[in-house]
Structures are given as structure tokens and as C-alpha cells.
Fold this protein.
Amino acid sequence: MSRKTELRRKQIIKAAYQAVSDKGYETVTLQDIANYADVSKGVPNYYFQNKEDVLAHLLEEITERIYQKEKAAVENETSFQEMLQAYINAVFVNPEDNEKFYKVYLDFLAQATRNERYRKINARFYQNCFSISQLIIMRGESEGLLHSMNYDDDGKAMRSLIDGYMIQWLMTGDHQKHRTYKESCLKAIQTYLTS
Amino acid sequence: MSRKTELRRKQIIKAAYQAVSDKGYETVTLQDIANYADVSKGVPNYYFQNKEDVLAHLLEEITERIYQKEKAAVENETSFQEMLQAYINAVFVNPEDNEKFYKVYLDFLAQATRNERYRKINARFYQNCFSISQLIIMRGESEGLLHSMNYDDDGKAMRSLIDGYMIQWLMTGDHQKHRTYKESCLKAIQTYLTS
Amino acid sequence: MSRKTELRRKQIIKAAYQAVSDKGYETVTLQDIANYADVSKGVPNYYFQNKEDVLAHLLEEITERIYQKEKAAVENETSFQEMLQAYINAVFVNPEDNEKFYKVYLDFLAQATRNERYRKINARFYQNCFSISQLIIMRGESEGLLHSMNYDDDGKAMRSLIDGYMIQWLMTGDHQKHRTYKESCLKAIQTYLTS
Amino acid sequence: MSRKTELRRKQIIKAAYQAVSDKGYETVTLQDIANYADVSKGVPNYYFQNKEDVLAHLLEEITERIYQKEKAAVENETSFQEMLQAYINAVFVNPEDNEKFYKVYLDFLAQATRNERYRKINARFYQNCFSISQLIIMRGESEGLLHSMNYDDDGKAMRSLIDGYMIQWLMTGDHQKHRTYKESCLKAIQTYLTS
DNA sequence: CATGAATGAGCTTTCATTCAT
DNA sequence: TATGAATGAAAGCTCATTCAT
């Protein structure tokens, strides 16, 4: 794939991200995506097989990017508490970005129940998230602050608390409450881990 | 509304439940719903204002029914442990029903980010779920097994763990794993509450 | 046809008149007509063959009634001037009634271009109108005020001036202008006849 | 708008003209229009906002074209009699064209009673027609053949006679009678003007 | 007689996709 | 490469008509 092609695809995926966030997975049209990307109607179909292909690449892109960011944030810290805080900071980054991401991510989760391709992409994302959790938990253990029975279970629990709190926050539709849900989520994870 | 009308509406909503579960919120057509209900194309439109109206009633119906079942299950028990177990039993009732419900529920959550009506229905559902959690927690407190700092926070955490585990299970696409996720979820809640 | 049937049909036609005036010939539904008549949806179909049959009877009814009224008004007078004035008074009776009638009548004229049945009903109406014109003109001749070359031509001209002015007035959408158009129409007819 | 787009729109409007004339304003479908234009179903919606938009452009187009033709015909003549005759020739051009135009025009008049947009287009058409009448009348005055009290009133009367005779002719459904109605109309206008 | 539930044809409109330019 | 005109499938919705009650 040429450099130019690469760029075009990125441009379209970025536009698709904004478009899906604004209009919703099923409601968004290729025309919308083209408009957001400031290209003509035919371009998305030229650089991707079809609409679903654009959206699958979007899901891959955003889950991978989120993972890289969170991983980097956590790896930058040394103590358990700092790592956990850094993780939560990276997850609950700010109301605007979180709303954008979780609107789209929820759309994809809903689709994934009936779409193998999306389910696979999400499975990889889950694995990546679990690996971050494990990093934090292992550090907590080495500091003697906690004792995990099962990294996998704890990863699932942490993922549940993060997704669950984020969805509940999203449903309030209130950006002001972002800080509160973030703090509650952190506290819940701490409570769970250091029991 | 006459008794017969009532029945017809129930029938259509039931058909819509199966149809949405099979095809997805946006993909399902009124024709699908009519087919599943074994009635003609015009009937859903006769008994409801439009497609969205059918689906909003579906969301109301399923969230209310789930709540009533879970509440009844919990109220039937006396000890904290039994109540919690009964709750989890009612939530993780069996792979088939859980898949059906959560496929549809996830669809609605995804829609709710852009639809006030759905968001309101979901807010009521959340409140109802929180009230069940509170019932269980208060019993745990009276038994001296735990000490809640904040019923609201604990309700959110329990909801997060339940939704989170259920979504993760759904994403495996594996009915066999239902039992494992159920047990993990129960353990996570216990860990969280009795810390 | 029984007395009751007769009444029901009148009731439906009256409702249809109002309904068509409000909604338009093609836009009006049998449900509308039933609503206006305060009967159930099935009634119009019970008393008439189908929708077109209702509307054809409506056209017959309103053209016949208008003719009878105008004829009576003219026959009540003795001089040419009084007869003409009475005719115009009966035609331009008031803004509300004229709007109602001409909205519906225009709808039927438009339909009549493609509907033999309506065209026939309108042909009878024209004949009736011409007979009124003839009555007036003959009186004018016997008073020595005018000299018709051809009753038929003059009838057509009078009909043209009445329909034309009425349509132009209707297009203004202004009830205030009713009086002006009425006077202009009268003057135009006088000018035409007494040339 | 590109030249090609312009042409396509003209093509669709022309097809719509024939289609409406054949089937009627409300009865005609976008499919009909597409068929008459020998394009696919989606094309009319591609070039116009919706069905009403197509039809409004049609009304604008045909009223403007008729006006331009009539104006040109009148301006080509020098004497009052010639101008009037040219006008009537341009109005009563031939049975086929007149039937086509007046079928459609009557449809629009009927719609206009409930549609502001159409009413405005027709109001402009009326103004244009009045301006032609004025041209003729002023010439008649300068030749000393007649004396108008009020250009506006005379314009309305001429319009009434033209529309009225045309409608009456249309209702006969008889192309043979076209010549007779044309002559009668001309005579009626002459009688009216030179009284 | 009267009701209104039910049917299904038929409409407008949207939009992914194709393809000539 | 890029465009956007064109296609036509498929959707939601309306409503005349039928008919069991």
C-alpha cells in the first residue's frame, strides 16, 4: 500500500469516527463520511471494500489507539497507586473524548453480537486491556498491597467496572458528572483489588 | 384500550423482541416483526404509531419485566448470601435468555446515546436495579457482613459488574462459558462488597 | 332506499363536503369522512360502493343545491337588473361558503378532465347555469336593455366570468377582497351584456 | 448548476409535464415521471428535493413558458385587432397543447387553494397575463377603439373569459369544438372591451 | 346495521454501490 | 485517482377495502 493510499485511508477513518459518533453506526451514510473527510462520495468505496469494511477498520483503529495510549500512560509510572491512577486518567480522559469514543464503541459492541469480525477485533482489545490490568496488579502484588487469585478474573472485573461506569455516565448525558464517575470508578477498583 | 388490543400489542412486542434479538435494532424491519408475530405487514403500524414506538414499548416491557423478576427473586430470600445468590441467579438465568435480552439491551444502550426517550426508560431501569442492590446491601449490613459507605456508589458498582461481565460473556459467543462468567461475577461482587 | 339509508347518505355526503374542502380531493381519506360524520370507518363503504362513489354523489349534491338556490333567487325577481343582481348575490354569497364550494368544485374540475362520470355531472350543472343566464337575458331583452345574438354564447361568457372571477378571488386567499371581486364580476357581466 | 444538470432537470420536468397531464397531479408517481423520462426511479429524487419540488418547478416552467410565448406573439403585432387575435391564437394554440396545459394547470389551481407555494407561482403568472392584456388594451385606446376605465379590471375580465372558455371547452372532451370555443372567446372579449 | 381489526398494494424516500468519464 | 450521476433494492408508512363479529 502506497504512502498516499495509507494517508487517504487514515483520513477516511478519522472522518468515519466523527461521523459515526454524531449519527450512529447504522444511521451514518457513506455520503456523511465522505462529507466529513471532505472528499467525494466515491472515495470511501474506492479505498475500502464497502461500508462495513470502513467501519471495521475504524473499530480496529480506535481500539488499538486507546490501548496504546493507556499502556503508555501506565508504563510511565512506577508505583501501583500511580499506575492505577494513570490508567484511570487515561481511560477517563475528558468528557468530550470519552463521549465520542464510547458512543462509537457501544455501537460496535451492539453490532458485534451479530458480527464475527467486530467480535474478533473486540476480543483483541479485551486481551490488551487485560494485559494492562495485569501490569498494574502485578505491581500491586510486588508492593504487597494486594494479592490476586487470578489475573484473568481481576482483569475482567476491572474492565467491567470501567465499561460499566462509563456507560452509566454516558447515559446521564451530563458532562459535569464525568469527574464524579471517574472518582467512583477508581474507588470501586481500589475497593475490589485491595480487599 | 380493550383487552384484545392489549393482547395484540403484547404479541407484537414479543415478536419484536425476538426479531430485534435476531436481526438487530436498526436492521429489523416492520415486515420482520409482522412475520414473527404471524400477522400482516400493516398490523404493527396499526397498533403502534410507528417503528420507534414499537421499539420503545419493547424496551419498556423488557426492562420492567427483568426488574420485576429480579426483585421478586431477591425478596423471596432472607439472608444476605441467599439474596445475593438469588439476584445473580435471576440475572444470569440461562444462556439463551441472557443472550436474547443482552443483545437487545445493548442495541438500546447504543441507541440511547442519541435518543432521549430510550435514555429515560433506561434511567428508570437503573433506578430499579439500584433499589434491588440497596435491598441486598442493607441486609448485608444488618447481618454485620459489610458496611456500605454509599448505597448509590455500591449500586453503580454492582450494576457495572453485572453489565460488564454479561457483555464480556456475550462477546465470547460461547454459551458454555455462561456458568463461569456467572460465578466470576458473583465472586467479584462479593469481593467488592465485603472488602 | 329506506328513509334511514337516505339520511345516512346525506350525513356522509355532508361530512365529505367539509372533509374535501379542508383536505382536498385526493388527500381526504375515508377515515376523515367517517370522522367528520361521527361514524365508524366502515360506514362510508357500507352506504356507497367506494370512495369515488361518495365523492361523485358529493359533486352531484353540491352542484344541484347551488343551482336550485341560484334559480330560486333569480325567479324571485322581476326586472332584469334585480335578477342579475340576485344571481350575483346568490353566486357570491359570502367568503366562507364560496371558499368551501369553490375549493371542492375546483378539485372536481381537475378530476373531471380524466373522469367521465364527473364530467357528466358537471355538464348538467353547466346546462342548469346556462338556463339561469338565459332567464336573465330574456328578461333583459324584453326590457329592451340588451339584444342577445346567441343565448348559448352569452351563457358561456357569463359562466366564464363568474368562474374566472371566483377562481381569481380564491387565489388571493383574502376574504376581505370578496366584495370587490363580486362587484367587478357584476360590472363585467353588465358590460358584456349591455354592449 | 452545471449545464448537464440543467438539461437533466429540464428533461425530468418535461417528463413530469406529460405524466401529470396523463395521470393527474396526485395520481402521478415518481416512478411514472422516471418512466416518461426514460431514467431510473431514483433520478427525479436525485435532481429535486422531493416530489412536490419537481411539481412546483413544473408549474413555474409551464406558466413562464406560456407567458413568454403569448407575450412574444402580441409584441409582434402592431394594431389592436391583430394583437388581440395573436393573443387568442397563442392562447388557443391547438387542441392537443391546450388540453395538456389546462389539464395540468387545473390540477395546480386545485392544489393552490391549499398550497402557498403554488399560489405564489400562479400569482406571478396572473400578473404576467394582466401585463399582456394591458398592452393590448392600451393599443386599443391609442387607436380610439375602446376606453378602459381600469386596466386591472379588464385584465381580470379577459383572464376570466380565457380560463372560463378553456375550462368549458376542456369539459366537453371534444377536440373538434376547439375552434368554436376559441372564436366564442375572442368574440366575448371583443364584446366586453368594445362596449 | 355498524364496527374496527386486518390486509396488502402501492407510495415516497434513502442510500450502498457501480462505473463512465 | 477521483468524481458524482445513475441505479434499484429495500424501507416505513398510508389507506381503500374487506369481513368477522
Observations:
- Chain C has two domains: 1-48, 57-193.
- The mean pLDDT of chain C is 96.
